């Protein structure tokens, strides 16, 4: 095993991605070669990375390696503790299947956009995410973080002739760099407090830092990494950027990239900063509850399949934050085993969300490639034209709606149990937050189910709603292979949840602020039980129970009715000809829920009518556009932008564009500095 | 050996009894409205009749429409094996968690809503939309009301909850009562009763559940009807045995269990009368008034959780 986890293997993995990137670029004039080279090397690198990180996780030792550099502060060092190895494993697992998918999916870009460029940035993107998860030096981390942001930016604007992609990319570019500014600020505070940029040294040095500094670090890290994670209200880039990228990249961005924000929040709040404060956890619980509820409500109002999925990422980040917030609260109260439980829930949901969100994005990519539209209102009946994609999408939909026996249910169950423990064991004020968090989680999963009835039902069921959709056909073998792989992962993570809990318990226990506590009493294949038998569950039993019951009832009904016939007939149409226009639309499906939540969602409706005559008595065409008011833009980002413009206006007085003035400034600065130097010496 | 027999009874009790209690509720309602009403055993005859009829399936329907009734029925069977019926000595630490039951119910709703959309008719789609609206907003009240009794008992296992709720003194039973109110509202919503839905209507303005299953016929309709009956009895049982657990046996002896079964039937009967009384005395609410009621259920249950401990 030692051989697997040696540094040279890690470097070799990075080299494979480098080869994939340069290879794709070298063959950029041969689409086919660029596709095969770029994506198969990415898949190979990811597979090796998966084995490598898996071996590190199971073995439990902490490989640390690397080298210094000519800058004293920057050292290119890696350290794979359990947390890093876990996130690297998630990244590689999803990247592996996305790369397999891409082998088939990228074909429809042949001749339209440069496949070589796609392969280059794609490999760079995966490699930089691995570096983010494993780097051990703050400065090196920032470089990797920036490469990740830039690579994903170029992937977002990949379809560069679409103006929407460019707009989405610009917004993403601005938001992510605003976030990076906060991260840099947090890192500078750490450096100031400890005099080092090494993760371990910083963690040791932070013990002496004042509460003020620790709070400041937490807040700026929350904002900085919160932008990447897509928490509300910092999410505005996410629903436009994720859909703009090619679908396998969307899957990686939504499934994995936003988790790097979670990774650093976990590391900073539970390892680097000693003794977290109670209010950090409470803030995360409130943000998590709000993000999950609002995320799913916005998803309900979307008609663009990929935007809908992107909003669900916000929802699921909210659920992960509920687990993380709980872990911080428990850790601050010294209840380490509860913190371990709560963190295990958060990490499990991180892994689960990566699998089902990637699957859903890949499924959406296949649907879009087959129908050439992202508008959900145009779909319908695809279950007959794309039966396998439909099955995979259904599995993903059920998992994300937290329906048993799939993995999404188990991680929400674990999150619920962690929150219940908060209700039991904490004082009244804190308890109230936990009760509301339980409520938010319950409503969220209900609304997610409603949203996926809409997403799956309108897309795949009933009759095709447009001509283009009725000509759709099943996607190629590689995309189906990748989706099958993810579906199997979803089922296995549900079935073997006991083993995963045991693994995650180790990951959480390795963090300083949890101190080796176990997440569950017993976690085996048979059942998982937490907190001295407060709750127990057996996912295999649920799985087998449903299966056996379904088989039994099918057999009984078959025996009773084997002589009866089944006639294929028309759907009841009330005597009129039933057309696809009579089917329920996505807008109609979700409008009732939106109306119920109108205070929060602020629905809008614009009516445009064209008339036959000047007197406007006889309407010719009427069009109603239903949407939502963008409250974040109106109340947060627009005023912020106005403020920035105003401030920029003031600076024009100094920064006039006149080169003589600038020379004067330089001159004055020089004089001032000379005086300063004179004074100090 | 006795253990096995009791488990068989536990698993079969819900599907065997459920049509009777649906029939009984209808019968009581009829009597309250001065009608003779059909026999309480009519639902059995209906199911038997439907099982012996040919079936018409829409040409637009996919395999999901065909598979859904079996899967929905299967979920109710698993739930039936996970809830306390007669004895607290039966232990199910595998699927007995209340969240498992709540989410298995959600699985059934999810599949039924998809089947409603599947045939491409106008009715099925809006039925699904309304059903998901109600189901999504019920979740909060349902989870928190069950959480109240779980916290009092120190376990989320439904089979283990009745034992400790039975020993709560009356003076401290306020959270239990509040949780029961919250639960009752959620129950009416989940089982498609007044004031949420009219179980005996086929008017497109008002129907929710019936709109979704409009395209079903024959054996699959029988299964769907039977599953809804199961769901009704499951909720009534939860209401009766979690919040008023008096009379449940605490051993696996024959005599106490037989007595417990009799008490169980009486308790369920009383709750059916209550449902019938309610349905005869109030009107169905407008659909956009329903969220207020469901939110009330959530708030009452949240207060109940807050009062525990």
Average of per-residue pLDDT values of chain B: 93
| C-alpha end-to-end distance of chain A | 59 Å
Structural class of chain B: mainly alpha
The biggest beta sheet of chain A, please?
3 strands, antiparallel
Q: How many DSSP-defined strands of chain B?
A: 1
Q: Main sheet of chain B?
A: none
CA-CA gap between termini of chain B: 40 Å
In N-to-C order, the SSE pattern of chain B is HHEHHHHHHHHH
What is the overall pLDDT average of chain A? 92
- What spatial form of chain B do the alpha-carbon principal axes imply? globular
Task: Identify low-pLDDT runs of chain B.
Answer: none
How much helix is in the residues of chain B?
55-70%
Counted by DSSP, the helix tally of chain B is 11
Q: Oligomer, anyone?
A: heterodimer
Number of helices of chain A: 25
| Strand numbers in spatial order across the main sheet of chain A | 3-4-5
**SS strand fraction of chain A:** 5-15%
């Amino acid at each position: 095993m030692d051989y697997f986890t040696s540094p040279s293997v890690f470097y070799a993995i990075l080299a494979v991605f480098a080869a994939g990137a340069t290879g794709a670029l070298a063959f950029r004039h041969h689409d086919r070669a660029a596709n095969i080279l770029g994506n198969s090397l990415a898949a190979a690198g990811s597979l090796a990375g998966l084995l490598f990180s898996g071996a590190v996780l199971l073995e439990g030792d902490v490989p640390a390696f690397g080298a210094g550099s000519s800058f004293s502060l920057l050292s290119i060092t890696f350290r794979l503790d359990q947390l890093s190895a876990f996130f690297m494993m998630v990244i590689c697992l999803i990247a592996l299947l996305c790369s397999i998918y891409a082998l088939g999916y990228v074909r429809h870009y042949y001749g339209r956009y440069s496949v070589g460029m796609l392969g280059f940035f794609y490999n760079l993107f995966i490699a930089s995410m691995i570096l983010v998860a494993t780097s051990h030096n703050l400065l090196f981390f920032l470089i990797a973080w920036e490469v990740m942001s830039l690579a994903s930016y170029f992937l977002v604007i990949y379809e560069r002739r679409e103006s929407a992609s460019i707009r989405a990319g610009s917004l993403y570019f601005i938001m992510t760099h605003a976030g990076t500014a906060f991260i840099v600020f947090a890192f500078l505070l750490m450096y100031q407090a400890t005099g080092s940029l090494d993760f371990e040294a910083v963690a040791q040095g932070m013990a002496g830092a004042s509460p003020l500094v620790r709070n400041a670090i937490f807040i700026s890290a929350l904002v900085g990494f919160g932008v990447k994670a897509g928490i509300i209200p910092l999410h505005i880039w996410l629903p436009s950027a994720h859909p703009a990228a090619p679908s396998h990249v969307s899957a990686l961005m939504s499934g994995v990239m936003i988790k790097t924000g979670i990774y650093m929040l976990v590391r900073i709040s539970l390892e680097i900063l000693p003794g977290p404060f109670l209010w950090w956890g409470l803030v995360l619980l409130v943000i998590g509850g709000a993000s999950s509820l609002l995320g799913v409500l916005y998803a309900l109002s979307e008609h663009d399949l990929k935007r809908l999925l992107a909003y669900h990422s916000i929802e699921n980040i909210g659920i992960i934050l509920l687990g993380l917030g709980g872990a911080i609260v428990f850790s601050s109260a010294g209840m380490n085993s509860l913190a371990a439980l709560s963190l295990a829930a958060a990490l499990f949901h991180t892994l689960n969300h990566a699998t089902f969100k990637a699957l859903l994005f890949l499924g959406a990519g296949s649907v879009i490639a087959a129908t050439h539209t992202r508008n959900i209102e145009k779909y319908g009946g695809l279950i007959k034209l794309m039966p396998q994609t439909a099955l995979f999408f259904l599995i993903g939909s059920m998992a994300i709606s937290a329906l048993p026996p799939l993995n999404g249910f188990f991680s929400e169950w674990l999150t619920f149990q962690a929150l219940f423990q908060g209700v039991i064991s904490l004082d009244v004020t804190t308890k109230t937050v936990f009760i509301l968090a339980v409520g938010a989680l319950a409503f969220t999963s209900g609304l997610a189910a409603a949203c996926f009835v809409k997403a799956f039902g309108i897309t795949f069921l009933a009759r095709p709603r447009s001509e283009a959709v009725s000509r759709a056909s099943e996607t190629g073998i590689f995309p189906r292979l990748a989706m099958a792989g993810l579906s199997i992962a979803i089922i296995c993570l549900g079935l073997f949840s006991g083993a995963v809990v045991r693994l995650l318990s180790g990951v959480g226990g390795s963090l300083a602020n949890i101190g080796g506590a176990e997440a569950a009493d017993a976690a085996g294949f048979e059942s998982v039980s937490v907190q001295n038998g407060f709750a127990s569950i057996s996912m295999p039993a649920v799985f087998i129970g449903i299966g056996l019951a379904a088989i039994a009832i099918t057999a009984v009904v078959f025996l009773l009715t084997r002589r009866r016939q089944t006639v294929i007939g028309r759907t009841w149409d009330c005597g009129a000809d039933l057309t696809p226009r009579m089917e329920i639309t996505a807008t109609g499906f979700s409008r009732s829920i939106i109306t119920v939540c109108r205070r929060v969602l602020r629905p809008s409706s614009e009516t445009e009518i064209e008339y036959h005559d000047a007197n406007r008595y006889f309407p010719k065409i009427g069009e109603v556009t239903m949407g939502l008011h963008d409250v974040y833009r109106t109340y947060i980002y627009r005023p912020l932008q106005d403020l920035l413009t105003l401030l920029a206006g003031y600076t024009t007085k100094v920064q006039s564009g006149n080169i003589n003035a600038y020379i004067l400034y330089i001159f004055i600065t020089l004089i001032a500095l000379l005086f300063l130097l004179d004074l100090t010496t | 050996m006795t253990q096995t027999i009791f488990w068989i009874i536990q698993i079969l009790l819900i599907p065997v009894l459920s049509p009777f209690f649906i029939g009984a509720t209808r019968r009581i309602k009829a009597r309250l409205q001065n009608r003779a009403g059909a026999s309480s055993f009519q639902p059995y005859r209906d199911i038997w009749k439907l099982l012996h009829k040919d079936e018409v399936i829409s040409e637009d329907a996919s395999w999901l429409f065909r598979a859904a009734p079996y899967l929905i029925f299967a979920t109710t069977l698993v739930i039936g094996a996970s809830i306390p019926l007669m004895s607290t000595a039966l232990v199910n630490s595998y699927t007995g968690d209340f969240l498992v039951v709540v989410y298995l119910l959600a699985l059934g709703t999810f599949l039924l809503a998809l089947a409603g959309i599947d045939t491409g008719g106008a009715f099925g789609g809006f039925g699904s939309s309304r059903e998901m609206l109600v189901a999504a907003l019920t979740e909060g009240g349902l989870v928190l009301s069950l959480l109240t009794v779980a916290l009092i008992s120190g376990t989320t296992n439904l089979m283990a909850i009745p034992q400790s709720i039975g020993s709560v003194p009356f003076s401290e039973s306020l959270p239990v009562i509040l949780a029961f109110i919250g639960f009752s509202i959620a129950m009416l919503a989940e089982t498609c009763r007044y004031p949420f839905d009219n179980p005996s209507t086929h008017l497109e303005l008002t129907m929710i559940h019936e709109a979704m299953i409009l395209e079903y016929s024959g054996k699959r309709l029988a299964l769907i009807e039977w599953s809804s009956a199961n769901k009704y009895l499951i909720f009534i049982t939860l209401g009766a045995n979690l919040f008023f657990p008096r009379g449940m046996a605490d051993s696996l002896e024959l005599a106490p269990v037989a007595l417990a079964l009799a008490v169980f039937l009486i308790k369920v009967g009383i709750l059916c009368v209550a449902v019938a009384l309610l349905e005869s005395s109030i009107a169905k609410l407008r659909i956009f008034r329903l969220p207020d009621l469901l939110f009330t259920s959530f708030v009452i249950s949240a207060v109940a959780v807050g009062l525990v401990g």
